[in-house]
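Worked problem 6 (solution included).
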Amino acid sequence: MTEARQRTLFLAAPRGFCAGVRYAVDVVDMVLARYGAPVYVRHEIVHNQRVCADFRSRGVVFVDRVAEVPDGGVLVFSAHGVSPKVREEAATRGLRVIDATCPLVGKVHMEVLRYAQDGYDILLIGHRGHVEVEGTMGHAPESTHLLETVADAESVCVRDPANVAVVTQTTLSVDDTSGIIAVLRRRFPELRSPSTDDICYATQNRQNAVKKLVERAELILVVGSKSSSNANRLVEVARADGRSAKLIETAADIDPSWVEQADSVGLTSAASTPETLVQEAVDRLLALGCDSVRDVEITREALTFPLPKPLRSVDVEL
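Solution. The predicted structure is:
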């Protein structure tokens, strides 16, 4: 008689919602409670289809342009932030605006403004077309150069090599940016950078947790949306360490053959993924043959952000 195969599920910690995403989701919850539907949100509040679908069912309307919001409407800026031009347009329209920009993104915006006012060329490391990058560049478009690759760092032209500063998209990790920054420091020895890293603590923590998972598991599953930059990067990190890795949006995406071929499975989720989706994936993996669950915790996160001023007096049960 063949002995039953033992298969362990390793669960990464930290995972899922970061403080900025939790902040943005709580803001929309409270705006709905205070003002009622419809509430308009510029861009998806976070890059997760389950979260956005839930909000749509409760009366949230996601828009790409301020012009889509009717006169007198309530508009929330998403966690990714917006440019001053967008803020000015909303103010001109007289819309009631609540800002759910992640404070870590807002910090980068302030750095860009300060560097531009001081006459620096600003080198922004990030992904072209990402909504956070668009908002950041909008704070100093004439002074900011977008760098996506080491080749970009080698070729970028600036007005004065002695007056160059670097900032980064928050959802990149130290590993993502290190090669580009090394080139910039070689080319521009007087390169200025913020006194503290722009890198979001949660991005780095989740990538570090994946690196621990690959030491224990043959197959890595990342729960997150295809549109999520940090979800896709978690998959890339696992694959870079030689592991099979899959991005899944829901538990239904798990192919039983993946689990059958692995002696161990690692599970994590992107910073925009609600814990309910992770627990559904855990339940499915247990049903497919994983017989035990072990936590792989590298650190604990306790950061929280104060609510925007217009909501601080709201008495709402979240």
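Discussion: The chain has eleven helices and twelve strands.
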